[in-house]
Amino acid sequence: xxxxxxxxxxxLIVDNLEKVYARRGVRGTRREVMALQGVSFAIRPESTLAxxxxxxxGKSTLAFCLACxxxxxxxxxxxxxxxxxxxxxEQQRALRPQIQLVFQDPARSLNPRFSAxxxxxxxxxxxxxxxxxxxxxxxxxxxxxxxLPQEKALQRAEEFxxxxxxxxxxxxxxxxxxxxxxxxxxxxxxxxxxxxxxxxLLLELQSSLGLTYLFxxxxxxxxxxxxxxxxxxxxxxxxxxxxxxxxxxxxxxEVTRRLIAATPxxxxxxxxxxxx
Amino acid sequence: MAEVHGKTMANLPKxxxxxxxxxxxxxxxxxxxGQKSPALAGLSFEVQPGETLGxxxxxxxGKSTLAAALLRxxxxxxxxxxxxxxxxxxxxxxxEPGVLQRIRxxxxxxxxxxxxxxxxxxIRIGEQVKDVLAAHESSSRSAMRQKTLQLLGEVFPMxxxxxxxxxxxxxxxxxxxRVLIAQAIACGPSLVVADEPTASxxxxxxxxILSLFRKLREKFRLSLxxxxxxxxxxxxxxxxxxxxxxxxxxxxxxxxxxxxxxxHPYTRALLQSMPSEIEGHVNQRKSKLAVIAGEAPNFExxxxxxxxxxxxxxxxxxxxxxxxxxxxxxxxxxxSCFKYGE
Lengths: 276, 342
What we know:
The complex is a heterodimer of chains A (276) and B (342).
Chain A: E1 12-24, E2 30-43, E3 48-53, H1 59-66, E4 74-79, E5 82-83, H2 89-95, E6 99-102, H3 106-109, H4 116-127, H5 132-145, H6 162-174, E7 180-184, H7 192-209, E8 212-217, H8 220-226, E9 229-234, E10 237-243, H9 244-249, H10 254-262
Parallel strand pairs in A: 3-8, 3-9, 6-7, 7-8
Antiparallel strand pairs in A: 1-2, 1-4, 4-5, 9-10
Helix pairs in contact in A: 4-5, 4-6, 5-6, 6-7
Chain B: H1 7-10, E1 20-30, E2 36-47, E3 52-56, H2 63-70, E4 78-87, E5 90-91, H3 97-103, E6 108-111, H4 115-118, H5 125-136, H6 141-155, H7 160-164, H8 173-185, E7 191-195, H9 203-219, E8 223-228, H10 231-234, E9 240-245, E10 248-254, H11 255-260, H12 265-272, H13 281-284, E11 327-328, E12 334-335
Parallel strand pairs in B: 3-8, 3-9, 6-7, 7-8
Antiparallel strand pairs in B: 1-2, 1-4, 4-5, 9-10, 10-12, 11-12
């Protein structure tokens, strides 16, 4: 694992994806919202694609389509060579363990009354693939993998700090040995020093487990740090994509430039004079 | 009180009395089991007229407790143990309820986190802004309506009338935040305290809200306390920065000193843990970020020494013995760390 991934086939190909939501207006009028319009990109195995955009740009709709939680209106999603958009409900269920999600706010995405062990156990239980006796061992291994101390295994989720809860959410996502992790604003709700810890954990796991990440964010600085490639979205469209260095240094699109300019910069404290 | 305002005066703290002086403030929360845990443990700082103070702190640093404690708005299980909050020469912690009520919202306005929770979902925006005015002054209905539109015009130059007729759910997060700002400036306060006003917003909306604050603090000569966990937000915005750690001030000083050449080991480690700026990415990409070892302290476990000692790279034997006092490094830059003397 952790081998070079240059020549490999893409793990995931998104081809001309569209998603239209029908909204019912005040007087029963139907209004169509184009959440995704002709979105195409590919992610190589064991690499990270950062999807950057503002709220409402369609990032989360895309994540839901990839995780088989929403059906796209048209277009194709090809995962490990197979077209998942063509699968029926039953076949999608078999595929879901391969693609897992980590959400923004672990305080809301984890049941606060469950213990750490139960939370990590649950996906194994639901998929019913591991015997009870092995399950606990497996769950404990997962907790260790994300850097949670063994003595906290029986503590309830609500007793953990924000950073520890996000570790727990990652352990839970890893339980079914996915290939692709969708990190939907997974660092945004955390303190700066905790963001650094979780970012490091993600890098470690990527190289030790050979994971592929779709890192959804509005933070260009963190996207630049974690990603190999960056795609920028606005109003349901990908307006620019390319190697992370290229997008950061020579942004071609107006939206990209605007988002980069809006990223708060520490050096402004030293360089720029105070603006009144 | 002497009516002295303006940026130039902020540079002459010796001649002007501070607008706000917080002295040795101690706040504790009591759990249902009766256990006391301190949230602020001897916090002191000042805000000069017309100055913007950035309060930087992570979860558990006590920064939100600070916002609530200034106006005695702590929840029922929170208690101010000791200290003083001197505002325009008067100690708010000793003030009569009636006096305090006239200061809240009128002289000091607080903008709390989460704009979507701060607005009533069933009442039109115009009405909610007018309610703030009506709480502090009485005038005719038409005068109120006009003042409301004028206030909304400060934050929505283009479509104040339309916004006034809207309900909160019809507005974006950035627009809701603007409404809270209109409410905050409604009665012409001299101090606005904003607790993470941009935390839930996109970077470009964040910048718009900061620009709005810039415009308003100039126009109305406001002093501003901006509470945040994001150091980069304060760069180019705050005049001074107060770094909080576990209920105490770790470091305080001019923004270019604290963020440009931080001295406290915590401030240094915090700033180093951030990913490098876009220009500097090429070599460090996908490399490990510097982290502060361990977790933010749990107050029940705190011993006698420095609160940061267990996580500090520069710790010395002395650090476990007692808490360091603030050491002045000049230019009103102060650091609470034994590295700089006792």
